[in-house]
Amino acid sequence: MADSTRVPTPPRPRLRLRLGVTGHRRLPSPTAVAAALERILDALEAAIGEVSARPESVAAYAAPAAGSRAPLVCLSGLAAGADSLVAERVRRRGGGLQAVLPFAREEFEEDFRELDREDGHTGEPGPALAMFRDLLADAEAVFVHDGRRRDDASPAPTSARIRDRSYEAVGRTVLRHCDILVAVWDGAESRGRGGTGQIVDIAARQEIPILWIHARDGTVRAVTGAAQLDAPPPPLGEEALTRLVAGWAARVVAVPWRGAAAGQGHGGAHPEAAGALLRPITWLVDRYFGRPVPDGAALARFYAERVRPDGTPTGLAVPPLHRALRDRVAPAALADAGVGAVRARLAERMGVAAWAAVEAEERAPSASADGGPAALLRRAMRVPDAVAVGLSEDKRSATLLVGFAAAVAIMCAAASLVFSGAKAWLATAELLLLLLVFALVVVANVRRWKDRWLAYRLLAELLRVAAQLAPLGRTMPVRMSVGEGHVGRAFPGWVSWYFDAMVRDAGLAAVDMTRAADRRAALIRPAAHLMLSQIDYHRRNALRTSRLAAGAEAIGEWSFIVTLVLLLMKLALLEFGLAKELLHGLTLPTVWLPTLAAAAYAIRHVEEWALLHQRSDVMAGRMERW
pTM of the full predicted structure? Predict the structure, then answer.
């Protein structure tokens, strides 16, 4: 049983680099190719070793478990020739192996039997088939596409196209998951879909780094774009290859730790624990000169985040006024028939066993029976998701406090004009309220609520989508170098590094799409996790925001009506020349009530309750009709 007192922290990924492979089944110069491959693997191992020894890597990556495999992982289709050669050489060095098959294993084995027969091996199994079975047994994950080797009901050309598309699916899956591609290629165009030439062309257009080993002479070239396929670069010498591989490996696995103070790694001090006396000056510099937080400091801060067993983050800075108000107007125990209807449809489509697994993961998401990539990515999502929610609550609660503190300060100023004997007390109260507003602004800037909320929400949503895609053998196309953003630097460098590192650690899903049960689970189970949680969230959010918007609007409307009545009474009193004391008694409410209405109106529009209600209502309705 899991320890209920444990305080979850963001999981640290294992250091892994994924080496994809594509190449010919028949190698004209296998000895030269093998020698070139060894040079590449030597350079990769040296580069990974250098990066892993850096202090920031020790702090940011999980410590290797006893008996674990080397960080280098080979992604291979395990076809005879280049695929098997690279997989075998990586395995010899203690690296991992993740396999992608075009169709069921029994069908795929016919490829190897056919090759063995062509080479004159009539025994069972022949060398090629034996190698395939040996590598497959050692793979840490095997993803099987639902392709077919032949279709006896179709003409021969159609059957061949079906088979070639199955091989193409393998190549595309390898490209989706690899960091660097080794291509053992003779430079000729593909003779059909899924051939080495086509896969290399796709990789070059996607700007995946390619180490091209020429199949005829073993020379190595670096390809980083489609233009280099039309005008191939010169072969790399030994020193140039080592420098190039070191640079590529560093771009993939190096940690963006610039700006992190010493001791902010594993269990180190919180990034805000030092320099307390300098914080006001630091805040002024950051506030007025916009100095960004270095990636290293932001990543160290992220690793220091804590979430309680009930899912709430520690260290919230503001009383949860927004949550209390929200739960007051719409309790968390609200039931919704739409969720029940969707659950019934999902259970019918998935079958009893698959639906039971979904319900088990709902009850214990952090201890899911599914130990695959999806479960790991959902666990990684838990902390940034919870902290983002907490930071949002802090921000919204601070908005409520600032709005009403400013309103009460204006009321105190108005009251001091009427109650001259209490001017000192009212001025003191006004000053304290203004100091409260200032303190909230300072806290929001020093603790960087907005920056952290945006980064954690982005990271959580990336991991959420990646978890849904993992059982399908797909991943998010967030291929970027450390410290660089994507689309106008929209991604902080540390967010992209952590996401990519977790996806590499999660690896390829072990799914057999030729089996109906696996296919159903891969297609519907991720949707079940996502849809059930999203319908529940949007239904509750629609009701809560609707009531909050209606309440704020009612405060404004009634304040206006009462103020209008009081002003009419005041005019009547002036007309009849009644006592000034009565006039003073009416003056204060005519100042206070518009101030209260303005505060309610401002908060309603800053929080965008009406817009959030409309969005959640539409989203929930569409998902319930699925």
Answer: 0.80
Highest mean pLDDT among 79-83, 149-153, 313-317, 459-463: 79-83
Ramachandran category for residue 154: left, alpha or beta (phi over 0 → left; psi -120 to 50 → alpha): beta
Tell me the pLDDT tens digit for each residue of 192-230.
788 999 999 999 999 899 999 999 999 999 999 888 888
Report how far residue 485's alpha carbon sits from residue 496's, in angstroms, rounded to the nearest whole number: 8
Residue 369 has pLDDT above 50, yes or no: no
For tokens 């009530």, the residue is 593
DSSP string across 201-260: HHHHHTT--EEEEETTT--EEEE-STHHHHSPPPPP-HHHHHHHHHHHHHHHH----TTP
Instruction: In whole angstroms, give the CA distance from residue 120 to residue 34.
Output: 23
Please compute Rg for the chain using Cα positions. 32
Dist. CA 214–CA 8, nearest whole Å: 49
Q: Are 377 and 302 in contact (CB under 8 A)?
A: no
- Report the Cα 157 to chain-centroid distance in Å: 43
**What 3-state DSSP class applies to 22?**
strand
Phi, psi of 23 (to 5 degrees): 175, 180
- What is the residue type of 36? A
CB-based burial, 349-359: b 16+ in 10 Å, e otherwise: ebeeebbebbe
Contact assessment for residue 271 and residue 301, using Cβ atoms and an 8 Å cutoff = yes
Beta pairing partners, 72 = 17
User: Which strands make up the sheet holding 180-185, listed edge to edge?
Assistant: 141-144, 96-101, 72-76, 17-23, 180-185, 210-214, 220-223
Q: Are 304 and 310 in contact (CB under 8 A)?
A: no
